[in-house]
Amino acid sequence: MQLLSKFTIGDLELKNRVVLAPLTRGRCTPTENPFDVVCTTPNDLMVEYYTQRASGGLLITEATAISEAGCGWRNAPHIRFPENVEGWKKVVDAVHAKEGIIFMQFWHMGRQSHSSHHPSTNKTFAPSPIAMSGVKVRTINGEDAEAEVPSELTVDEIKATIADYVNAAKLAKEAGFDGIEIHAANGYLIDTFLQSSTNKRTDNYGGSLDNRIRILKEIFEAIVESGAYPANRIGFRFSPNGVFGDMGSEDNDVAFPYFAKVMNEYKPAYLHVMDGLGFGFHNKCKVVTVADFRKVFDGPIMCNVGLNKDTAEGMVRSGAADLCAFGRLYISNPDLVERFTHNWPLEPEAAYETWYAPTGAKGYTDFSVYDGPHKAVEAESQ
Ligand SMILES: Cc1cc2nc3c(=O)[nH]c(=O)nc-3n(C[C@H](O)[C@H](O)[C@H](O)COP(=O)(O)O)c2cc1C
Q: What average pLDDT does the segment 106-127 reach?
């Protein structure tokens, strides 16, 4: 299978094209004080979780908060403090010991956070003061709350946000990550700059397509200039079709291929696109597919959403994509690569209640590797 063949990103050789998609799992250890650094630091369970999946060609971590303003998900990890770096280092070292390659996904939640997570400002931030409609957010105490009207970032605050990304990149480097993925999807801060429905600015960061992508370009350039990572170790993720976070804009079919063309100039590690529709479709413009990006982006393209072994093989074999990211299948099949390799059956999707809730090992590290058909035979004979 071509899906299982090697692939090179920059100077990194991936052992196959199967990628662990970024998956928020909320498994840092909860304590009584939700602001405790323990609640944002990877623990031994998380080391085990990533190590179990290290046969993938590339592992992308769960979204990881780069700053106080950017955080907003209880028990999701941060990359802000020395303790965070120490915790992540254990994950990275364990994955490297299994010859895995791991990128950290950088997260600023923007308007999807809640002000209670941000004691120093008591605000959430976005390009424009537009609240999500029909979507609840969670407070620092874990209660559901109405989405708030975010504060419009000033240009000085945009510059400070870029500095936060650079700081996070230096810390990710210190933890030993092979690279980083900038989360520009799913209605989080950068996506809300990219899309016309959420960016109503009239300054250099809004209006034209060139203005709307400016923040992503500046983050990318600043990280490269800082020396933390070169361009070929920095990927980025788009979700032009998605509804998550009350997103979707009428011009996405024109805007996103243009954004990819602009980013192509930097020769990034890869472009990661949630082009499938199985995570929700806004239906406000035509579907944007990896084929639209292939025309304008020369580097590696990773596709995602709703893939299985056969559709992923088709994507690679047809040349539509170079890499295939798996989310829900990888949650319940830690040995996904081995199952693909040997044509072994797959476990069904994990129960939704275990996706993000702090259920510890349950629905997280308790999926066993395939151990042959004998179990089913034994069960039948009982
Ligand atoms: C439990 C869960 C957590 C997720 N967390 C993230 C995340 O942290 N960052 C992100 O970019 N996407 C996240 N996603 C989206 C997945 O990366 C992926 O795009 C989605 O699951 C569709 O792929 P699949 O059909 O292979 O599951 C999450 C999805 C799930 C199910």
A: 98
